[in-house]
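hey
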């Protein structure tokens, strides 16, 4: 069986598994009820917009969207309400995207990684391996015309892009030894989201990507269906993955994991001019809000993960250079695509002008031997 056929079989199995999970969740009432209307009084709102997203309210996605929802209520003086729907479809980004397209839900925030599956290529450059490797660089990218250019790509599937916000830079985390060099990745089964770009990148590093829904990751690690994951700190903490992981690579920043707030275009066109202005005004700071959450100097997240037993390993400059060299075939492939290739060049130009702050040292006892 060829690798392509193997991946197709895996993808089909995952799709069936997701359907089963969704049906089971519905049967036992596992899917959370929609959140209350945010930022306004339900009796005063002239219109309420449901916004789905795939994480819990405590994840950076949820926290930033709550700030957006509250701001909508404020700028509209309570006339427009945002009803946040967390853990949409059990955490299935693809289902959320499809439901937005057909109008089942008016709006949602969908991880940038899966838009490629629906023919939207404009977000690919943002997740090229080792390109956007700091929040300082991502802040510059999302505050630049590059973000507007990327958001225009959603029009291809009749969705209106509103804003991009971040969930946390992804790092490799393993149930055994740290993944710090290409040799460490060789043959390791790494859980991946259903993204051609990210799975291609993991293959280039020498890993064996395994498509697995988020709801199955904990058990998958425990039962050794996968040996490692690519994840951000918030995901590891909110999903309690620290219980089945040993080491997270502290300075191996694979790619950011942004999400794209968008709305069904037919529904957007039914908004009044004032309602559009309120949403745009409230979304203006969504990117910076999300990055502020992730760079909060008072955050105890790293220490909390360390206390829970997770260790952090640091790659040497030579190891990081070797990792970047290993993914050069990914750049050779995606740089030929447009608008991906031109956006990569724009981000590289920004990167050359930015000096990211030095990383904070890990708390005592948190560093892997």
């Amino acid at each position: 069986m060829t690798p392509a056929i193997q991946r197709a079989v895996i993808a089909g199995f995952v799709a069936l598994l997701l359907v089963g999970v969704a049906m089971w969740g519905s049967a036992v009432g596992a899917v959370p009820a929609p959140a209350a209307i945010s930022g306004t009084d339900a009796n005063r709102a002239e219109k309420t917009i449901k916004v789905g997203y795939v994480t819990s309210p405590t994840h950076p996605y949820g926290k930033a969207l709550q700030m957006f929802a509250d701001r909508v209520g404020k700028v509209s003086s309570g006339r427009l309400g945002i009803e946040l729907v967390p853990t949409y479809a059990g955490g299935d980004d693809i289902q959320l995207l499809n439901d937005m397209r057909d109008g089942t839900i008016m709006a949602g925030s969908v991880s940038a990684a899966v838009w490629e599956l629906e023919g939207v290529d404009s977000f690919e450059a943002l997740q090229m391996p080792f390109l956007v490797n700091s929040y300082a660089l991502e802040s510059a990218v999302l505050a630049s015309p590059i973000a507007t250019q990327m958001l225009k790509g959603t029009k291809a599937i009749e969705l209106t892009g509103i804003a991009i916000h971040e969930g946390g830079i992804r790092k490799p985390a393993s149930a055994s030894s740290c993944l710090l060099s290409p040799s460490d990745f060789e043959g390791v089964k790494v859980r991946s989201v259903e993204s051609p770009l990210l799975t291609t990148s993991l293959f280039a590093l020498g890993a064996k990507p395994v498509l697995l829904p988020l709801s199955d990751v904990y058990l998958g690690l425990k039962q050794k269906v996968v040996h490692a994951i690519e994840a951000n700190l918030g995901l590891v903490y909110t999903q309690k993955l620290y219980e089945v992981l040993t080491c997270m690579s502290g300075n191996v920043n694979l790619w950011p994991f942004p999400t794209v707030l968008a709305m069904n275009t037919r529904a957007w066109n039914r908004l009044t001019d004032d309602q559009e202005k309120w949403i745009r005004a409230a979304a203006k700071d969504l990117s910076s809000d999300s990055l502020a959450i992730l760079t909060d100097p008072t955050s105890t997240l790293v220490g909390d993960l360390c206390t829970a037993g997770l260790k952090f390993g640091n790659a040497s400059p030579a190891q990081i250079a070797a990792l970047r060299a290993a993914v050069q075939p990914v750049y050779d492939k995606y740089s030929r695509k447009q608008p991906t290739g031109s956006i990569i060049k724009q981000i590289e130009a920004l990167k050359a002008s930015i000096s990211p702050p030095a990383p904070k040292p890990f708390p005592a006892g948190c560093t892997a031997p």
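The first helix runs from residue 3 to 28. The two ends are 40 Å apart (CA to CA).
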